[in-house]
Amino acid sequence: MNLEVEGAVSVGPANRRTLQLQYIGNWVWRAVASLVDTRDFDPSPKWIAKKINVNLEEVVDALEGLEKLGIIGRTPQGYKKLLKYVYFSDRDLNPKAVLADHVLISTQIMGRLNPANPNLGCFYRTGFVATNQELAKKYFSKMESVMKEFLMESANCAADSVYAFTFSAVDVIDKTNKGVDQ
Q: Looking at the domain assignment, is residue 182 inside a domain?
Protein backbone atom coordinates (compact mmCIF):
# COMPACT_ATOMS: atom_id res chain seq x y z
CA MET A 1 0.00 0.00 0.00
CA ASN A 2 1.52 3.30 -1.10
CA LEU A 3 0.85 6.04 1.44
CA GLU A 4 3.03 8.74 -0.02
CA VAL A 5 1.47 12.18 -0.03
CA GLU A 6 0.43 13.55 -3.39
CA GLY A 7 1.11 17.17 -4.37
CA ALA A 8 1.95 18.95 -1.14
CA VAL A 9 0.21 22.31 -0.88
CA SER A 10 2.27 25.30 0.17
CA VAL A 11 0.87 28.48 1.64
CA GLY A 12 2.49 31.80 2.49
CA PRO A 13 3.05 32.90 6.10
CA ALA A 14 0.06 35.28 6.17
CA ASN A 15 -2.31 32.64 4.81
CA ARG A 16 -0.82 30.04 7.14
CA ARG A 17 -1.53 32.31 10.11
CA THR A 18 -5.14 32.73 8.96
CA LEU A 19 -5.49 28.97 8.58
CA GLN A 20 -3.91 28.42 12.01
CA LEU A 21 -6.45 30.78 13.56
CA GLN A 22 -9.24 28.90 11.80
CA TYR A 23 -7.89 25.62 13.16
CA ILE A 24 -7.65 26.93 16.71
CA GLY A 25 -11.18 28.34 16.60
CA ASN A 26 -13.01 25.53 14.81
CA TRP A 27 -13.91 22.28 16.55
CA VAL A 28 -14.82 20.59 13.26
CA TRP A 29 -11.30 21.08 11.83
CA ARG A 30 -9.83 19.75 15.05
CA ALA A 31 -12.18 16.76 15.17
CA VAL A 32 -11.51 15.87 11.51
CA ALA A 33 -7.74 16.12 12.05
CA SER A 34 -8.05 13.67 14.94
CA LEU A 35 -10.50 11.39 13.14
CA VAL A 36 -7.88 10.78 10.42
CA ASP A 37 -5.84 8.95 13.10
CA THR A 38 -8.55 6.43 13.98
CA ARG A 39 -8.11 2.86 12.75
CA ASP A 40 -11.53 2.69 11.02
CA PHE A 41 -11.14 6.07 9.29
CA ASP A 42 -12.98 6.38 5.98
CA PRO A 43 -11.83 9.39 3.91
CA SER A 44 -15.28 9.92 2.43
CA PRO A 45 -16.52 13.41 3.44
CA LYS A 46 -20.02 11.91 3.79
CA TRP A 47 -18.74 9.30 6.25
CA ILE A 48 -16.86 11.96 8.23
CA ALA A 49 -19.91 14.26 8.33
CA LYS A 50 -22.10 11.44 9.60
CA LYS A 51 -19.50 10.30 12.13
CA ILE A 52 -19.20 13.71 13.82
CA ASN A 53 -22.75 14.84 13.01
CA VAL A 54 -22.00 17.96 10.94
CA ASN A 55 -22.88 19.00 7.39
CA LEU A 56 -20.86 17.96 4.36
CA GLU A 57 -19.67 21.51 3.56
CA GLU A 58 -18.04 21.83 6.99
CA VAL A 59 -16.13 18.59 6.41
CA VAL A 60 -14.94 19.62 2.93
CA ASP A 61 -13.81 22.98 4.34
CA ALA A 62 -11.97 21.19 7.16
CA LEU A 63 -10.23 18.73 4.83
CA GLU A 64 -9.10 21.54 2.51
CA GLY A 65 -7.89 23.73 5.38
CA LEU A 66 -6.08 20.87 7.14
CA GLU A 67 -4.37 19.98 3.89
CA LYS A 68 -3.24 23.58 3.33
CA LEU A 69 -1.89 23.72 6.88
CA GLY A 70 0.09 20.54 6.24
CA ILE A 71 -1.70 18.66 9.03
CA ILE A 72 -3.08 16.06 6.63
CA GLY A 73 -2.09 15.06 3.10
CA ARG A 74 -3.97 13.48 0.23
CA THR A 75 -2.96 9.92 -0.66
CA PRO A 76 -4.25 7.50 -3.32
CA GLN A 77 -6.34 5.94 -0.53
CA GLY A 78 -7.69 9.25 0.82
CA TYR A 79 -5.82 11.13 3.55
CA LYS A 80 -3.11 10.57 6.10
CA LYS A 81 -1.91 12.60 9.05
CA LEU A 82 1.36 14.40 8.29
CA LEU A 83 1.92 15.88 11.73
CA LYS A 84 2.12 13.40 14.57
CA TYR A 85 1.16 16.06 17.11
CA VAL A 86 -0.95 19.14 16.45
CA TYR A 87 -0.61 21.63 19.28
CA PHE A 88 -0.54 25.28 18.29
CA SER A 89 0.49 27.70 20.99
CA ASP A 90 -1.87 30.61 21.45
CA ARG A 91 0.60 32.64 23.51
CA ASP A 92 1.23 35.19 20.73
CA LEU A 93 -2.44 35.61 19.78
CA ASN A 94 -5.02 38.16 20.89
CA PRO A 95 -6.18 36.88 24.31
CA LYS A 96 -9.77 38.09 23.76
CA ALA A 97 -10.01 36.19 20.47
CA VAL A 98 -8.47 33.07 22.02
CA LEU A 99 -10.95 33.24 24.92
CA ALA A 100 -13.88 33.71 22.52
CA ASP A 101 -12.77 30.62 20.57
CA HIS A 102 -12.29 28.66 23.81
CA VAL A 103 -15.77 29.56 25.06
CA LEU A 104 -17.34 28.65 21.72
CA ILE A 105 -15.55 25.31 21.41
CA SER A 106 -16.10 24.48 25.10
CA THR A 107 -19.81 25.16 24.70
CA GLN A 108 -19.94 22.99 21.57
CA ILE A 109 -18.10 20.17 23.35
CA MET A 110 -20.38 20.39 26.38
CA GLY A 111 -23.39 20.31 24.05
CA ARG A 112 -22.29 16.84 22.97
CA LEU A 113 -22.17 15.40 26.51
CA ASN A 114 -24.90 12.83 26.94
CA PRO A 115 -24.84 10.87 30.20
CA ALA A 116 -27.98 8.98 29.09
CA ASN A 117 -26.06 7.35 26.22
CA PRO A 118 -23.68 4.72 27.65
CA ASN A 119 -22.05 4.31 24.21
CA LEU A 120 -20.61 7.83 24.38
CA GLY A 121 -17.49 8.26 26.44
CA CYS A 122 -18.26 11.26 28.63
CA PHE A 123 -16.36 12.70 31.54
CA TYR A 124 -17.21 15.92 33.29
CA ARG A 125 -16.24 17.50 36.55
CA THR A 126 -16.57 20.91 38.08
CA GLY A 127 -15.09 22.18 41.28
CA PHE A 128 -14.49 25.24 43.36
CA VAL A 129 -11.53 25.58 45.69
CA ALA A 130 -10.21 28.29 47.98
CA THR A 131 -6.51 28.56 47.16
CA ASN A 132 -3.86 31.13 46.30
CA GLN A 133 -2.65 32.39 42.92
CA GLU A 134 0.74 30.67 43.16
CA LEU A 135 -0.80 27.23 43.71
CA ALA A 136 -3.44 27.85 41.02
CA LYS A 137 -0.74 28.70 38.46
CA LYS A 138 1.20 25.57 39.45
CA TYR A 139 -1.80 23.36 38.75
CA PHE A 140 -2.84 25.19 35.56
CA SER A 141 0.65 24.45 34.26
CA LYS A 142 0.23 20.79 35.24
CA MET A 143 -3.14 20.65 33.45
CA GLU A 144 -1.54 21.98 30.27
CA SER A 145 1.23 19.41 30.63
CA VAL A 146 -1.35 16.64 31.07
CA MET A 147 -3.11 17.82 27.90
CA LYS A 148 0.15 17.65 25.93
CA GLU A 149 1.06 14.28 27.44
CA PHE A 150 -2.39 12.88 26.57
CA LEU A 151 -2.00 14.19 23.01
CA MET A 152 1.47 12.69 22.59
CA GLU A 153 0.63 9.32 24.15
CA SER A 154 -2.56 9.09 22.08
CA ALA A 155 -0.52 9.59 18.91
CA ASN A 156 1.15 6.26 19.65
CA CYS A 157 -1.96 4.19 20.40
CA ALA A 158 -4.44 2.36 18.18
CA ALA A 159 -7.11 5.07 18.22
CA ASP A 160 -10.74 4.02 17.93
CA SER A 161 -12.42 7.30 18.81
CA VAL A 162 -11.97 11.06 19.08
CA TYR A 163 -12.37 12.79 22.43
CA ALA A 164 -12.73 16.53 22.78
CA PHE A 165 -11.75 18.12 26.07
CA THR A 166 -11.55 21.57 27.53
CA PHE A 167 -10.01 23.03 30.67
CA SER A 168 -11.04 26.37 32.09
CA ALA A 169 -10.44 28.08 35.39
CA VAL A 170 -11.31 31.52 36.67
CA ASP A 171 -10.78 33.46 39.88
CA VAL A 172 -14.38 34.25 40.85
CA ILE A 173 -13.33 36.90 43.37
CA ASP A 174 -13.57 40.40 41.92
CA LYS A 175 -10.45 42.05 43.37
CA THR A 176 -11.72 45.52 42.41
CA ASN A 177 -14.89 45.13 44.46
CA LYS A 178 -14.18 45.71 48.15
CA GLY A 179 -17.53 44.29 49.19
CA VAL A 180 -19.18 47.69 49.55
CA ASP A 181 -22.84 47.97 48.48
CA GLN A 182 -23.28 49.95 45.32
A: no
CA 13 to chain CA centroid, nearest Å: 22
Alpha-carbon dihedral 77, 81, 82, 86, rounded to 10 degrees: 170
Number of domains making up the chain: 1
**Residues 6+ away with beta carbon under 8 Å from 108:** 27
**Can you give the pTM of this predicted structure?**
0.76
> Is residue 8 predicted with pLDDT exceeding 60?
no
DSSP 51-76: HHT--HHHHHHHHHHHHHHTSEEEET
Is 154 a member of any domain?
Answer: yes
Residue 101 contacts residue 168 (beta carbons within 8 Å)? no
What domain range includes position 47? 1-171
